[in-house]
């Protein structure tokens, strides 16, 4: 694994847990973790359960006793690490968004396609697909339970940079993060809604906004937290969006709205998706991730209404491996499910989803959003739109 902070910890937890929960055709051995600071990565290895710590990711790729490289670094290093790992015949799990630009994502996808011929698998970490209620949502939609999809309404809202004195962490710098709220959280709702509907976004009309243009430089930072040590006197420019909003058309005829913001005061990690169809609706709210709201318009009028499905039955996706019905799960379980599906795919020689092709298509949507926000007019998403 490369990177050991927020996602590194979430992925480590998944690798530690997955064989204890799921019956799988292969066993995970957590061989080595890579970071740039020898002391810190060594401490992280002990804390997170890795056998060894190294300071150059190329050392991981060169080893024969490592089969899979898990990339948990910011977007500026995804392409270089993933392409080198795939060329060396390693399987790759890469955090989202796949890359910082469409060109990088295309190169990564080409590398994944070449590596596939040699049996190496590549997957991108859009983990919310693996929340059981989201998987159930996709199953209900695919089974026609809400009929023809008319509306998709998605929002991913956070508030961690509302304070203008919050420092200029890597997520606010285009050269490291690629984009702001758009690629960080907007990318998740693009992938999630395309996964659930089975439809691809074909075009967008967007606006983006950067509310705070200048911020203090950080003394130290990791993930979503940071400190300043000079009272915030030295500042730098914010080079990404703070919020991105867009309308979209999907290739199955649905229309959609998307909102991604880091300025939604009071919203910590508020991800909501509602889908309205000709025969019903489904609603997911990450803050109630064990639940799915389902409105079935085919039952007698007098009995119609949104009902809450508690997604903890053994009949629900992934849940038979966990606890008795009603014994709820949380955020980290989506990463364990991601690890499970990747191991299954690697061991059985099938392609895991979301593939790099899927993640490249998300990248093209993000690119269209930025183009439209700049031009003020509709932007088509570059083709091809691979099958969902
Ligand atoms: N799936 C999700 O829900 C989710 C959530 C958060 C972040 N992410 C994604 O995960 C990735 C990492 O985000 P994070 O929040 O974990 O960031 P983070 O700042 O918490 O951790 C980044 C880690 O990468 C290391 N690193 C940075 N550049 C490196 C390099 N060149 N070589 C080796 N190590 C390097 C840092 O030292 C740190 O350990 C990003 O792509 C982000 O978009 C995904």
Q: Ranges with pLDDT <50 over ≥5 residues?
A: none
Beta strand count? 18
Q: How many alpha or pi helices?
A: 10
The main sheet orders its strands as 17-16-15-14-6-13-12-7-18
**Element-by-element helix/strand order:** HEHEHEHEHEHEHHEEEEEEEEEEEHHE
What compounds sit in this structure?
nicotinamide-adenine-dinucleotide
- Radius of gyration using CA atoms only: 21 Å
The average pLDDT is: 96
Judged by helices, strands and strand pairing, the structural class is alpha+beta
**Termini, distance in Å?**
28 Å
Global shape: globular
**Percent of residues in beta strands:** 15-25%
Report the major sheet. 9 strands, mixed
Helix content: 25-40%
Give an overview of the whole structure.
- This protein is of the alpha+beta class and 388 residues long.
- It is built from ten helices and 18 strands.
- The two termini are 28 Å apart.
- The model has no long low-confidence stretch (mean pLDDT 96).
